[in-house]
Specification:
This protein has 618 residues and is mainly alpha-helical. Helix content is 61%, strand content 5%. The protein has two domains: 5-371, no CATH class; 381-609, SGNH hydrolase (Rossmann fold, 3-Layer(aba) Sandwich). The protein has 27 helices and six strands. Strand 4 (484-490), helix 23 and strand 5 form a beta-alpha-beta unit.
Length: 618
């Protein structure tokens, strides 16, 4: 197909917001939509190449895969190997283990599926996953694998219905994306059925589904509108918006207008400007390298990147991308023209297997590779607490604690026992962390668990249905049953919810129930296990105390007298963990007191609940 300078410029318009957003430039709220622009570009280019070769009678699946392999694999393999080597010197054992698994998934083109399967409510933040960005490569690579067969079959057997089929597939994917963005946002974000519509938009442009515009003035207007949509998306869309549908439709539509009508429009002058094009040319390598560099910086210097840090990570990203482009991408692209498809594909398969094997080996031998003291490895291992046997025992996730995509099991978790005092533990994950410890502390009581993520147990709370329905059932019905004698309320309390909490305590006390409120948990501005382990390596574990959120102490002091005046028992977690503001760093097993920013380990939760008075005394 005919080369277009402006599309290189559009690549630059996609990658720069991604880079700056990830580096922490706060004004680019929607910088992440650059990925969606890349999807549209890819859909357009791939469909154009396939259909033009089919029309010319020169299309070959093997040749197509050869081109994709040469374009994608060398730079990707270099980045993965480079990141694994850096991980030996800069990561904890648990982080290197996860990195190895992610690298194997990335080189096998299933990173999006890997991250979808491994992300959950208690998972560490995205800032700690060095290869999280490769999810988008997984989506594109899966598109490259299956789409050529679809086009080939349609072209051979039903050529008249090619456009209709792509339109229907795109609309169906968008409908799925709309539904799952609301009900299963993680699946909608990572999986190709809910992302294919973005690539489909690009395919529709290549198939000339969009109407032709004869007037140059009208084309200019369309292209300017497209640029405006992209800019609006970059500056105004926020990470908490429903995504990818419907909000990704804005940058995708903008990119579509620029591709369809921008070849000779006024916008092309800027996009085809040499400095802009130069950034576009290295955009693939820039995308590959920027996230590992930023993540390694954050893991070792703090989640908040200073102004100087922003300049540093951006400069390092451009430097790595430039080296990758000129020393890896271009040499391989030049050589492949003289190499047979079969040879390239075999070599590519060997490379994929080799990198995947090396990655899995690194993952399995992570502790031996980093060679940190056992105490550091123990603390660091809590960064992946959800894989420890204590986690399901403590939280009962997926049954009595419901997070995204899960339903609360009322039959199993809201069963009252006659002839025995029943006490209900209500709230979010900060309540669920105490359930098992309370049940062990009071074996003569049937302790019932009613918990869901993001769900504070107050009369006025509004949120997701999985939460509100459970809270309403308990507060309006279950607590009125004669066998219920007490309620324990806990949550990640907010100052704005205190008044409603006090109303809830008063309401429950009027029903004659014993009411216990557990105050806010001590919190850190980072995942505690990772930073504590690194502080131990530096010889000063206590330096992590500077990262405690002091606002939680202030909220605790405010809540305690109000709850007690309303007739409730109040347990201050912050006073127990941090007497005289000197916080405990380790639980009784030598692990960290928290397994993330603020959730207590099982051992720590038992230590806190030891100080809890009677939960049945009225």
């Amino acid at each position: 197909m005919q080369y277009r300078n402006d599309i290189d410029g559009l690549r630059a318009a996609a990658i720069v917001p991604i880079l700056l957003f990830h580096a922490g430039v706060s004004t680019l709220h929607g910088g992440f939509v650059g990925v969606d622009i890349f999807f549209v570009i890819s859909g357009f280019l791939i469909t154009s190449i396939i259909t033009q070769d089919l029309d010319a009678g020169t299309f070959s699946i093997a040749t197509f895969y050869k081109r994709r392999a040469v374009r994608i694999l060398p730079a990707l393999a270099l980045m993965l190997l480079g990141t694994l080597i850096a991980g030996k010197f800069l990561l904890l054992a648990v982080e290197l283990r996860d990195l190895g698994r992610s690298a194997a998934a990335a080189i096998a083109f299933v990173a999006n599926i890997h991250f979808w399967l491994t992300v959950n409510y208690f998972d560490s933040g995205s800032e700690t996953k060095l290869l999280l960005h490769t999810w988008s490569l997984g989506v594109e690579e899966q598109f490259y694998i299956f789409f050529p067969f679809f086009v080939l079959l349609m072209h051979r057997w039903l050529p008249r219905y090619m456009k209709v089929a792509v339109v229907l597939a795109t609309v169906l994917s968008f409908a799925l994306s709309m539904y799952f963005s609301r009900t299963e946002p993680t699946a909608a974000f990572y999986l190709i059925p809910m992302r294919a519509w973005e690539l489909g938009i690009g395919a529709l442009i290549a198939l000339n589904v969009l109407p032709k515009i004869a007037s140059k003035h009208a084309r200019n207007v369309a292209a300017v509108v497209g640029a405006a949509l992209v800019l609006f998306a970059v500056f105004k869309i926020r990470p908490d918006y429903a995504f990818p549908a419907p909000w990704a439709l804005l940058p995708c539509s903008g990119a579509a207008l620029l591709i369809a009508y921008g070849r000779d429009a006024v916008t092309a002058r800027m996009l085809a400007w040499q400095p802009v094009r130069a950034v576009g040319l290295i955009s693939y390598s820039l995308y590959l390298w920027h996230w590992p560099i930023i993540t390694l910086y954050r893991l070792n210097y703090g989640m908040e990147i200073s102004t100087g840090g922003k300049v540093l990570v951006v400069a390092l990203s451009f430097a790595a991308a430039t080296v990758s482009y000129f020393l890896v991408e271009q040499p391989f692209l030049r050589r492949h023209r003289q190499t047979r498809s079969r040879t390239v594909l075999i070599a590519g398969g060997v490379a994929v297997a080799s990198v995947a094997g090396a990655s899995l080996l690194v993952s399995s031998q992570a502790a031996a590779i980093v060679q940190h003291p056992a105490s550091v490895d123990l603390v660091g291992s809590y960064a992946d607490y959800r894989t420890k046997p204590q986690h399901p025992y403590q939280f009962r996730g997926g049954t009595c604690f419901a997070s995204e995509g899960q339903q609360y099991d009322r039959a199993r978790c809201l069963t009252l026992r006659t002839g025995q005092p029943n006490v209900i533990v209500m709230g979010d994950s900060h309540a669920a962390q105490y359930w098992r410890a309370i049940a062990l502390r009071f074996p003569q009581v049937n302790v019932v668990q009613a918990t869901a993520s993001g769900c504070r147990p107050t009369l006025a709370f509004k949120g997701r249905d999985r939460c509100v329905s459970v809270m309403k059932l308990v507060l309006n019905d279950i607590v009125r049953r004669p066998d219920v004698v007490g309620v324990v309320l806990a949550g990640r309390w907010r100052g704005s919810e205190v008044a409603s909490l006090i109303d809830t305590v008063s309401y429950l006390r009027k029903l004659g129930l014993a009411v216990t409120v557990i105050g806010p948990t001590t919190e850190y501005s980072v995942d505690m296990p990772r930073v504590l382990a690194r502080s131990m390596l530096a010889g000063d574990p206590s330096r992590i105390s500077a990262l405690i959120k002091r606002s939680r102490f202030d909220l605790d002091r405010r809540m305690k007298p109000l709850v007690e005046n309303a007739g409730g028992q109040y347990l201050s977690e912050t006073e127990l963990e941090c007497p005289k503001r000197k916080c405990q760093l380790f639980d009784g097993d030598g692990g960290p007191y928290h397994f993330d920013y603020g959730h207590l380990t099982f051992t720590a939760s038992k230590e806190v609940i030891r100080s809890l008075g009677s939960i049945t005394a009225k």
